[in-house]
Amino acid sequence: MNLVEFQAFHDQALSAGVVFYQKGEFTSPVIAGAAEALKSRLQESGVSGPVTRKLFSTFVEMAQNIHHYAAPEPESGLQPPVGAGTITIVKSENDYSVICVNRIHTEQIPRISEKLDQVRSMSLEEIKKAYREQLHNNAHSQEDALSKGAGLGWLTVARDARQPLDYSFTTDPLGEGRFAFFSVRAVI
Amino acid sequence: MPDIHAARTPSTPSVDLTLASNRLELLGECYPENSLPFFAPLISALKDHFAAAKPARFEAHFHLQYVNSASTKGLQNIISVLNDAGAAGTAIQVFWSYDPEDDALEDLGAELVEDFTHVVMHRQHVSAGSAGTRG
Asked: Quick one: A3-187 is in which CATH superfamily?
């Protein structure tokens, strides 16, 4: 990328309202460092406590989701490999969008779609109720091998969002049909 | 049985389990990369402690900032062990401190003890500038 190409990218990001961009392998130190940087930036900009908390929470949940579930980069040197992806925060006049993108195996598409369609169909009250119910079920579960989000990951993100989560899958053109890019947008 | 004293990290709370004082304190951020391995030694130590003796009282202090979804199960497991001790006769006091602007933490405190009747919960505000935040 030369400087002219960079300028086009930079101008587009600026006019789109990109305020935060984190790309790569979401290791634990990267997640913690980026989350703290995000929190400092928001606090310094005078963003309210509740909005800062929601953006922080959404970032961490999405980042840890990428860490655990995303397909690692093929050239990754990490052992064990860690999921890679991108999280972007865009500010518009009235709200923030937190958008995550990561590669997944195409076999995961049905399971992910089912879970997200379920969450998307719920009102905020239903989401809060489903969250409390899942927490209650977890309390009584002897099953320690719960999914890494305790079944609460997407409910946690949806609970902080102003509208149902958007998501999409696009085929990875280099993935020989076995990989897709999975994107989710939460509006806060 | 040894106490547990684990230092705070950017994503995990400090853990101080002082068995002779019957006191547990967790302070800081709570989003470990893998939550079950983080909480397991603590839960195991608590179980061993209550299996060996029946103390008159036990206090657990939580002053957490962000708690990720995966950690909710680990926290529930802690409360569950305390609840069992409570059912066996130990007076269990849980102190849940949180930033008053943080509705999620406030609600989590209430939700965590909902299923446990042998635990007395005290939820309390702390200001953002107090010991729980990073200096």
From this structure: Histidine kinase-like ATPase, C-terminal domain (3.30.565.10)
Question: In this predicted structure, what is the pLDDT of residue A142?
Answer: 65
Q: Which chain B residues contact residue A28 at CB under 8 A?
A: 11, 32-33
Residues of A in contact with B111 (CB under 8 A): 132, 135
If phi > 0 it is left, if psi is from -120 to 50 it is alpha, else beta; for residue A105 that is beta
Measured between beta carbons, which residues in chain A are less than 8 angstroms from residue B73? Answer: 138, 146, 150
The answer to whether the Cβ–Cβ distance between B72 and A138 falls below 8 Å is: yes
The pLDDT tens digits for A17-72 are: 999 999 999 999 999 999 999 999 999 999 999 999 999 999 999 999 999 999 88
- Segments of chain A with pLDDT less than 50: 145-146
Q: Which of B32, B76, B103 is closest, CB to CB, to A138?
A: B76
| Overall domain count for chain B | 1
* CA A108/CA A179 separation, integer angstroms: 9
pLDDT digits (tens, 9 = 90+) for B24-49: 999 999 999 999 899 999 999 999 99
